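pasting for the record
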Amino acid sequence: MQADTMDPAEEPPSMLWGLDPIFSAFARLYVKDILQMTESTQVPGIYFYNLHPIYKVDVLGTVVYKREREDFFCYGVDDGTGVINCLCWKTDLMKEEVHPTTSGGKHSDGARGGFNPVAELDKLRQAQQSRCHLEIGELLRVRGPVKTSRQQREIMASTFYKVNDPVMAVQIAWMMEVPQLYRLCYDKPFQLQLNETSDSAISPLNKATNILRDFLKQKSVTSFRPYDVQDLLQPLISHQPQTASADQEPVAGPSACQQLRQLLKEALQILQDNGTVYRKVKSQDEVYRVTAHDKDLLIAVKDIIREDSKREKYAEKGCHIMHVLSAVRQRYSLNVSKAALELVLKSLECNSDIVSTSDNYYTVF
């Protein structure tokens, strides 16, 4: 692998890296992009993807090769875009040999049917070792900082474990979430705004989005069409005439009306991306529904969770969010996004209509 470094002229100052929220998170990047990231010239061990400073990543993939030493495992992880080496250090608990404990009889540490701490510790050690010993073909999730050693980029795992995914639910959820992260975060270059409190530091698009969001919240709007809210953005459009110098011909630009329509279109797209609004039916008559105020959608989601939680398959843990999303799209509207569903689930949970049994699983009381 070629160890490329960032051009010092393009690299943002290191004292400003903390302004990028991606810097403090485990970035869920494709292996291909991890291998191609450019390294910082200011601080070795920091890498850049679209000017986003990154030093720790989160990867899910299949083990395609393995090597074990006394102190560490070395796994090759393939996520479908490339293969990266993951160095996984063993803990002291993993290095210890597991000896089977005698159950039954007269054990000094516990009575019959009582709690045996020695046996429970052995069970914990066995469980940890089984989650960290992987074979080729098994699914591994690994988190940790990225390092470059001997011209080879690898992940120094701080957390790693085997993922049991017999029906590929985890992998499908991962493949749906990562492209969203790329579109909303990683593929948007990191832009510094040193004076975000000033009005001039806020882009017209951000202003337009905030104006629409505040209007929908304050007026408790349930549905609207673009021309209903278009006039709200009129003050953001500049009416300054374009001038040309004496030796230049005037250049025609978009009219104020065209600018307004484009600004409205982009602001509505942002509100759709974050789930604030959605279109139940996509037709020439553009009708947007406000997710938080759409009682029909809330009732539909609640009914789906209530009905499906009675089925034996979902009785124990409840319905996963991806199952609910699929059911909503089949029974209510194909255009409901995951972001919109998350807002609905949050609202229902706040009203005690549903309860989350575990991460992304929901059921009724």
